[in-house]
Design a protein that fits this description.
Helices cover 3% and strands 42% of the residues. The protein is mainly beta. The protein has one domain (6-16, 37-139). A four-stranded antiparallel beta sheet has the order 1-2-3-6, with no helix packed on it. A four-stranded antiparallel beta sheet has the order 5-4-7-8, with no helix packed on it. It is globular, with a radius of gyration of 16 Å. It starts with 11 loop residues before the first helix and ends in a 10-residue tail after the last strand.
Length: 151
Amino acid sequence: MKRIDRHRVAGAALLAATTVTALVVGTGTAGAAPAPAATYNRECGSGYVQVNQIPIPGRGSVLLAYSAATGKNCVVTKRNTSTGSPLWVGSWIQRNQELKSKQEQYGFYTSYAGPVYLDAKGKCVDWGGEIDGYVVARYKTNCGTLAGAVR
């Protein structure tokens, strides 16, 4: 289900002008180079290391990074290319099944949404993102060593 926070969209006209197109795979010309894949480029800042990734085929990737120094996780949803028209892009993260902990950012971007940060040292996280209507997520991942301990 696509969640749209209308308060973050600059006017209903912009939302109404958005269209979702189908993802078509394998229709390029023979020998054509594929679009460059989205890669982590320290969007979360120094000290953060990429620890997980969810591809959004033909669009980009959702990247999860972690800072051992701060115990914080960071999510960025990055398009394969930063050229072209802005698309609806979003990033979110929460401690496993703790809806009150959810941090998110959605909007129209040419390159990436986020970073969004969450203190979750020793906890499992749920995280994901969206590019132009294509939504991906992972649940109960990247659990720290304290995740199995009695709380």
